Amino acid sequence: MLNINHRALFLKRRAYGDTDKQGELKLIVRKIIIMTFWVMIFTVDKRFLDEKYTVYHNNKPIERTVKEGVMLAFDYAVRHVGKGPHGLIRMKTGDWNDQAVYGRVPITQIKTVRREGESMLNSAIAAYAFDIFAKMLEYANDKEGAKTPYQWAEDIRQAVD
Which among 16, 35, 41, 81 has the fewest CB atoms less than 10 Å away? Predict the structure, then answer.
């Protein structure tokens, strides 16, 4: 069984890469949320969300809890990636196929595609991850905080259907 520090290091390395000095990465929702959920489930330890880790932004250390990091990932997905005109998660620069934007779209249309293009794959992953995130928050006794990710997951599922 991993002790608390080993679990935090495991999550940090899987979610942020092996070095802390990469700066604030654009958080990858499916990695951070799903991995945090599985660490909590396997260890049955809600305290994991309160563990602290350090990231660097502009070469300055920032200490935050695992829960704060996961909340940042969700916030990034909602506010910076967001949904497109059909209610699906936007593609931004690509999904599983980065060629979808930079290999297939004329240069004059790339900004439009990044702003409006949507991805069924990103939407399916987000609906799954947001649902898991809401369950994790409920498990950690944050039922109020679980409402928004549940709603986003349901809205995305409706758009996919």
Answer: 41
DSSP, residue by residue, the chain: ---HHHHHHHHHHHHH-S-GGG-SPPP-HHHHHHHHHHHHHHHT-GGGGG-EEEEEETTEEEEEEHHHHHHHHHHIIIIII-B-TTSSBB-TT-SS-THHHHTTS-GGGHHHHHHH-B-HHHHHHHHHHHHHHHHHHHHTT-HHHHHHHHHHHHHHHHHH-
CATH number at residue 46: 1.50.10.10
Domain with 22, as residue range(s), is 4-160
Q: Residue 27 — pLDDT band, cuts 50, 70, 90?
A: very low
Q: What is the pLDDT of residues 100-147, one digit of tens each?
A: 777 777 889 888 888 888 888 888 888 988 888 898 888 888 999 999
